[in-house]
Amino acid sequence: MNGLPDLRVKLGKLELKNPVLVASGTFGYGEEYAELIDLNKLGGIMTKAVTLRPKEGNPPPRLVEVPCGLLNAIGLENPGLEVFIREKLSFLRKFDTKIIVNIAGEKEDDYLQIAKRLSKENGVDALEVNISCPNVKEGGLSFGTDPKVIYLLVKRLKEVCGLPLILKLTPNVTDIKEVAKAAEEGGADILSLVNTVLAMAVDVDTQRPKLGNIVGGLSGPAIRPIAVRMVWEVSGAVNIPIIGMGGIMKAEDALEFVIAGASAVAVGTANFVDPRTPLKVIEGIGRYLKDKGIDSFASLVGSLKVQR
Amino acid sequence: MRQVKSEVLFNRKVISGCFVMGLYCPEIARSAEPGQFVHLRVEDREEPLLRRPFSIYRVENEKIEILYKVVGRGTKILSRKRRGEKIDLLGPLGKGFKIDSTVKRLILVAGGVGVAPLYFLTSRWAIAKMREVIVFLGAESKERLLCEEEFKGLGTKVKVATENGSRGFKGLISDLFAKWLSSGQLLSESLICACGPLPMLRKIASLSKRSKAVCYVSLEQRMGCGIGACRGCIIRGKNGYLRVCKDGPVFNAQDIDWNWMP
What we know:
The structure holds 2 protein chains of 2 kinds.
Chain A: E1 9-11, E2 14-16, E3 20-22, H1 31-34, E4 44-46, E5 63-66, E6 69-72, H2 81-92, E7 98-103, H3 108-119, E8 126-130, H4 141-144, H5 147-160, E9 165-169, H6 176-186, E10 190-193, E11 197-200, E12 202-203, E13 208-209, E14 215-219, H7 224-235, E15 242-245, H8 251-260, E16 264-267, H9 270-273, H10 277-292
Helix pairs in contact in A: 3-5, 5-6, 7-8, 8-10
Chain B: E1 2-15, E2 18-24, H1 26-31, E3 37-41, E4 52-60, E5 63-69, H2 73-79, E6 86-93, E7 105-111, H3 115-129, E8 132-139, H4 148-153, E9 157-162, E10 169-170, H5 173-182, E11 190-195, H6 198-210, E12 214-218, E13 234-237, E14 240-243, E15 250-252
Parallel strand pairs in B: 7-8, 7-11, 8-9, 9-10, 11-12
Antiparallel strand pairs in B: 1-2, 1-6, 2-5, 3-4, 3-6, 4-5, 12-15, 13-14
Helix pairs in contact in B: 5-6
């Protein structure tokens, strides 16, 4: 096989130049990382969550490093929808990559208002609906665990917004397939799997929680096998594409997700560790396809060989 | 801000549990300002996962040095690095000491390895501007005192406090500083800069405020990205949260809400 393998991928109406995105909350609004890597090379950028009004976030400490992982309770700190549109989106628009805005709310109407407003803006390619943040009291996770609530939320969002809708699901449920099916029935175009795993760490000297918010979300390599398992389960239960994420540090990790059923992947916590990770993953996937003689990325998706 | 693979030039123990590491990184060395830091990946592995931030201690031509204390897994691995090994560095990061031209005197207060950014500041400031610098150096004991000779070598006045009294004033450096302030020796056009443990910084900030002197503090906080994106390393400021990595690590003490500091 000659030349570079074709890495383009179609997630329904959303077409990416390659299957590697950066995950919400780990890349800000791209400004900081633009100084370190060429954002034009990314398949897409999933922004830090945007809420209707500015959000201050949780009290410190907000981060704790744990074995092979990171526990965080940022609490969706963000400047709010209007500042996002004025300052952040106008910056992101300059790049030749897909801009996926992660939106979060405290009640259904918040999501609807944000979606309506963003669907009128240039430069938004899709919305990622955050119904799975473990670090805010109202909304967030509570939206993400009840299939009926999810179905209705997605249905109403589809009525007000023509953009591709990506539902970001939480792993903190008994059966993620039920939640995924509800999102699909409501009309979701794509699923993101998974958000962080609800977790906690205690300082035994002070007998206090290590996070200001007491509990937080675990990310990083520690959760990768959980995320891969969930992608595998959900890919067998729905017919919409999946973006796999959870502890991807290198191309092999991304390929695990793809072979298990993800049509694209997102690099998250690894952006903190090595900002070049997404670019390395893109290169690594290309190399893998070439070495294996696979001529298109799409044929690798869900190619897991299982002896039944 | 650059990401570079930097070669370890040396990694030397200076006192028990404290090391100085020299790193070859021309791009970072050229643009580094006193008070800025580097975010360093101790190993290309998943454990420990995150980078570690270190204040820049010295800059010489194409080399930077960091001064660090072994406190956990990351610094333990770092202490075993040898000459010739490569380390992934992000830097220079953060906002350093912004000193305007009206300042005639620098009053520096350092506790333990908190000397690092203050030494870099002095080396740039004292020599270049021929202005007065007074350094308050604190440590547990004479054996744990850092940089006394180096500061003297830059022509600064050094005042020492040790907790066990084995050298200089017996007690905390903040007590020595308080005593000095109360003797009325703080002249106008002075700027106070402090780096060290949080209880020390809190005292220095409050003493400075009482003396109506401007005080900068260099803060530490556990960091995620180190470049301002993740909002993990925040502290409470007078007008909301501030990122230590991007809005700091050097802050005007007045901009910090000390009631919220742990």
